[in-house]
Write a structure and sequence with these properties.
With 249 residues, the chain is of the alpha/beta class. It has two domains: 1-80 and 200-249, type ii restriction endonuclease, domain 1; 90-197, type ii restriction endonuclease, domain 2 (3-Layer(aba) Sandwich), CATH 3.40.1560. 55% of the residues lie in helices and 11% in strands. It has helices at 10-33, 37-41, 46-51, 57-80, 82-90, 126-145, 178-185, 190-198, 206-228, 237-245; strands spanning 93-94, 102-106, 111-118, 149-156, 173-176. The chain is elongated, with a radius of gyration of 23 Å. The mean pLDDT is 91.
C-alpha cells in the first residue's frame, strides 16, 4: 500500500527536481568560487603528495580540488535534492518536528506517516540513530493528539538496506532505494524514473560548472605557487610541511 494514494503528480515532481537542481548548482558553484588554497592545505597530508612524487603546483591543485569538489557535491546534493523530491512524490508536507522531514496524513486509514529522508544508507552511527529515534518519539505526540496511528520511517534515497532480523527492535522502519520510493508512490519503477524526470536540466548548468571549476583551478595554482614554491618554481616542501604541521605557521 502506497503512502501517496492519489498517485504521483509528475508535474510537481519535475518542478521539485528543477528547483532542487538550481539550488544544488548555485550552492556548489558558490562553494567552488570560495575555495582558498590555505584552507585546503591545512587539512591535507603533504607527506602523501611527496610520496606520490608530485612535482608541480598544478598536480597537487588538481588532486586537492577534485577531492574537495567531490566531497562537497555529495553533501550539497544530499541536502538539496532528495527531501523536496520525496515531498512531491509522497504528496506530503514538510514537517515542523526536529529530525523529521515529511509528514503525511492518511485520513482514510487514520495514519500519520513521519518520514526522515536520508541520502545513502551509511549516514548513521550509533549516537545519531539514538537521536533519530528520540526525534521520532517526540513527533509521535502529534499523532497521539490526532488519535491516529503513527508510522515513522527512515527513507534512504539510494542504495539497499536489508533488515538482518538481529538486534534491538526499533519503533521505525528503514527503507532504501527501490523499496523507499515504492513505499512513497506505489510505483516500483519510480526510483528509475527519477533519472527521466531530470530530463536535460543538468546540461543547462554544465558550462557554468566548467567555468567555475577552471577559474578555481587557475586561482589555486597561482595561490599555491606564491605560497609554496621557490623562485625557480620548485615546490618548497619544507615550507609546505611547516605551514601544514608547524606550530609557528
Amino acid at each position: 500500500m502506497a503512502i501517496n494514494k492519489n498517485g504521483v503528480n509528475e508535474s510537481s515532481v519535475e518542478n521539485a527536481i528543477g528547483t532542487a537542481l538550481e539550488m544544488f548548482y548555485n550552492s556548489l558553484l558558490e562553494k567552488i568560487d570560495g575555495i582558498k588554497i590555505e584552507d585546503i592545505m591545512k587539512r591535507k597530508n603533504p607527506y602523501l603528495y611527496r610520496a606520490k612524487a608530485m612535482q608541480s603546483a598544478s598536480e597537487i591543485v588538481e588532486s586537492v580540488l577534485s577531492a574537495t569538489v567531490s566531497s562537497s557535491e555529495e553533501t550539497i546534493f544530499g541536502n538539496c535534492f532528495f527531501e523536496p523530491l520525496a515531498i512531491a512524490a509522497s504528496g506530503g508536507n514538510k514537517a515542523l518536528a526536529e529530525g523529521v522531514d515529511i509528514m503525511v496524513e492518511d485520513k482514510d486509514e487514520n495514519i500519520i506517516y513521519a518520514i526522515a529522508v536520508k541520502s545513502g544508507p551509511s549516514v548513521f552511527n550509533n549516537d545519531s540513530k539514538k537521536r533519530q529515534e528520540q526525534n521520532f518519539n517526540a513527533a509521535a505526540k502529534l499523532a497521539k493528539q490526532a488519535h491516529a496511528r503513527y508510522e515513522p520511517i527512515i527513507g534512504y534515497s539510494y542504495g539497499k538496506k536489508r533488515s538482518s532480523g538481529r538486534g534491538k527492535p526499533t519503533i521505525y522502519r528503514e527503507l532504501a532505494g527501490e523499496d523507499f520510493w515504492t513505499e512513497l508512490t506505489g510505483d516500483s519503477l519510480f526510483y528509475i524514473k527519477i533519472i527521466k524526470y531530470m530530463g536535460a536540466k543538468p546540461e543547462q548548468y554544465l558550462e557554468r560548472y566548467r567555468e567555475s571549476y577552471n577559474r578555481a583551478s587557475n586561482r589555486l595554482v597561482k595561490q599555491f605557487t606564491t605560497l609554496f614554491c621557490d623562485d625557480d618554481g620548485n615546490i618548497d616542501w619544507d615550507r609546505l610541511v611547516e605551514f601544514n604541521s608547524g606550530y609557528g605557521a
